[in-house]
Specification:
This protein is an alpha+beta fold. It has 2 helices and 3 strands.
């Protein structure tokens, strides 16, 4: 029997995939969103979490970007 699950396919580099996996691991069990880790650069996640992932990535990049002092 075949089971189909609707999801969002994410293709990214290895560090970003690890960030998303670690972000998912930090959430409580009821909020985990990764359906399947396909390989080191591809993930299948629940479709309703795209904006949450984007905001977490944006926040991470803002925290880790260098701003030259004036």
């Amino acid at each position: 029997m075949v089971n189909a699950t609707k999801g969002l396919f994410i293709s990214c580099d290895i560090p970003m995939a690890q960030f998303i996996i670690n972000y998912n691991a930090s959430l409580p069990a009821s909020q985990k969103f990764i359906i399947q880790v396909l390989d080191s650069t591809h993930l299948l996640v629940q479709p309703h979490v795209s904006e949450m992932i984007r905001s977490a990535i944006s926040e991470f990049r803002d925290q880790n970007s260098y701003e030259k002092p004036a």
